[in-house]
Amino acid sequence: MEEFDVLSTLLQAQEPELYTIPTHARGPQGELPLTPKMLREWASGDLFGLSQNVGMGWEPAKVAGKHILMLSTQGGIRAEDGSPIALGYHTGHWEVGRLMRAAATEFKHAGSVPYAAYVSDPCDGRTQGTPGMFDSLPYRNDASMVMRRLIRSLPTRKAVLGVATCDKGLPATMMALASLRQMPGILVPGGVTLPPEHGEDAGKIQSIGVRYVHGEISLEDAAQLGCRACATPGGGCQFLGTAATAQVVAEALGMAIPHSALAPSGEPIWEALATQSARALLHQIQLGWGMQDILTDASVRNAMVVHAAFGGSTNLLLHIPAIAYSAGLRIPTVADWQEINRLVPRLVSVLPNGPVDHPTVRVFLAGGVPEVMLHLRRLDLLDTSVKTCTGHTLEDALNWWEQSERRQKVRARLLEADAVNPDDVIMDPETARARGVTSTVMFPVGNIAPEGAVIKATAIDPSVVDEDGVYRHTGPARVFTTERKAMTAIKDGSIQAGDIIVLMGRGPAGTGMEETYQLTAALKHLSFGKHVALVTDARFSGVSTGACIGLVGPEALTGGPIGKVRDGDIIEIILDREHLHGELNVIGDGIRRFTPGEGAILLKERLPHPDLAPDPQLPDDTRLWAALQSASGGVWRGAIYDVDRIIEIIEAGRKALNV
To answer: Which residues form the Dihydroxy-acid/6-phosphogluconate dehydratase N-terminal domain (predicted)?
Structure first.
């Protein structure tokens, strides 16, 4: 019982206002200064950037003025009242300074000397459809490297606290903390933004351009909806994309204190997490623990189990292996992911997976990660003997959570505020099964993807899935070598129901493995989009939905057969969502049909697509990243920098060249 009392002291807060948690906000008022020309020609990322700007408090009428970038080590500059002096790139790093201040105050109060350093991060939503996306995934490795250098550049440090929120900054911070090994560390998730009381979430809003062009919304609708999508100025987006999933994974790894992922940014219960985390880190110092006591092969597997139960973003297939590598642990394989996703039921109903699209703040109020873990513990799917950053085992933490006042109050608040039963957001396995909730990640293979590919099977519209739980789609390939041309084809009506978009040359060697969310967002929110599939060697945003298959390997620019598909080829996609088995094959060339084996021979004999080439705007920095991660084992090993492998290859090359 004593350990429960310690956890209560560590995590409990008595202030009643902590539990008066809003679930919606009015959002910025006014409208964006959009024109028909902007909506027809601007990339979705450019348009979404305007929504981010007003979400941080900028006057809507002025957001389209000249954008001036002032580089510093912080995301934006806030006045004392929270109003913007200089904008950040996104809401996710806009308020985290408050968490830093709260943690620093606690450290100082305890007699410690806090230091603060900053490595800002980009916004994947802002860069969708732009060359800025070419720096997205490579940034993660760079930022983690800089963070590690900053850690080492303070030789007197005794422990490290990280604060991060979003798609790449959070995995980078986790990688840096994982490398601490014998030193204590802890992570404070930066939380989520609230959805507007009336309007669209930050995922759907990224499709306003294509919906306007197709006549599905008006100019006035686009301007007003875009203005209020980011209803509060801080936190990651309101859906279980990469940012939210990474927060969940951090807590599941034991790096973040219980019930810290997905807290509403700016609220008292969110700010209290920083103070509580500071106390927990000081407790680790007293115990003599290091990050190596928390991050183990067992805790990594726990995180993968929780990822499957949440139905998290497929981008964590890149980040969890990288965190494991940084910690000196075994790197999970595709076989590990397959095993876990076949074993673990999905239990969370949340944007964008459904079946009901609850925003992430409702998942927090329903109990978040520890509530999901209670169900997983009953199924004997977790190793609860692992240590957590609280200074206690996961078993102790879950026992505390199950009996805690915090659990009772946040779940009651969800029912009070939104009239939503928390057990309808985080379901028990029997309820989830009865509501048709299926597992998340599957890895189709075939003559287009002999090394495999990935799809979030839960994101396929149920209305196009057969009664036996299998998605079947056979259709003509519509081949593109740039995302812009594919988006233009969707906007001008060239893509029809039944088509299969093949976007090639957008993997690491072509674009730094860009996200192609503007395509999936457009297809999701167009009436015919659920009848179109997308196959690419690029990757997808965590909020992507639909029959979108990414990370096709080998990538086109390294000789992968996806780079030999031609317009009019007949592609067959079969995805068994129940048994998580999938196939992806060319079975015709527009003139005749043939078997997948015959298709493999055809693709082998063909020359690559004549337009296949690295993007002309690909930065040298990203070309270097692509080469280094390829030498390290590629994306299926987490797109890491394996220094030993890289040196071995360089030395072999020098010997071969006699230099």
So the answer is: 90-396
